[in-house]
């Protein structure tokens, strides 16, 4: 009985085959990018495949574009300001930083009483560009959750901007706000304690009205 041993050598792929495989991979990735990724993620559909398959709808479902004017900004391209000769005033790069008002600023001080785990919303109605200065403090050493935010009905029910939030709780806060758009701008307060709390809220500025949404 004879036994035949044969050695089989594995031939390495040639440079031509590697180049062909690499090109095919790149082409496949580009096709996937153009046909699927661009329509689904960015709403770009050069071939019409996204519209045909409904992929282009995915990009429009996630986001809605609105315009919020930068009230305080606008100086991004103003790196240099020319100083006039002979003591003339230097022009403001953004004149909106000064606002002449026909009426005096309004002031309100209020006490918010919240039972255990109760919450409320207090909103200032502001025109675009109007300013408020505020402060609030919990009486005693207890903390509350708060969310300082703004929204406007015409932008849709899902739209709002957040100025500041403190989930773990805080017992006081103060600051100012220049409204980036017309709408309601204010606070949601939530008592995270098992005992009632009192919050002293002070607001000064050029608001149209104060809305108290009550306890809920």
* Helix run count: 3
Summarize the helix and strand pattern as letters. HHHEEEEEEEEE
Instruction: Indicate the CATH class of the largest domain.
Output: Mainly Beta
**SS elements, strand count:** 9
Main sheet?
5 strands, antiparallel
Describe the structure.
By secondary structure, the chain is of the alpha+beta class. It folds into 2 domains: 15-62, no CATH class; 106-215, GOLD domain (Jelly Rolls). The protein contains 3 helices and 9 strands. It has helices at 15-42, 49-53, 56-62, and strands at 106-114, 119-126, 131-138, 144-151, 161-170, 172-178, 183-191, 197-205, 209-215. The strands form 2 sheets. Strands 5-4-7-2-9 form a 5-stranded antiparallel β-sheet, with no helix packed on it. Helix 1 crosses helix 3 (56-62). It starts with 14 loop residues before the first helix and ends with a strand.
Task: List the keywords.
216 residues, alpha+beta, Jelly Rolls, 5-stranded antiparallel beta sheet, 3 helices, 9 strands, 19% helix
Quick structural overview:
19% of the residues lie in helices and 35% in strands. It has 216 residues and is of the alpha+beta class. The protein starts with 14 loop residues before the first helix and ends with a strand.
Write the layout of secondary structure elements.
Elements: H1 15-42, H2 49-53, H3 56-62, E1 106-114, E2 119-126, E3 131-138, E4 144-151, E5 161-170, E6 172-178, E7 183-191, E8 197-205, E9 209-215
Antiparallel strand pairs: 1-8, 2-7, 2-9, 3-6, 3-8, 4-5, 4-7
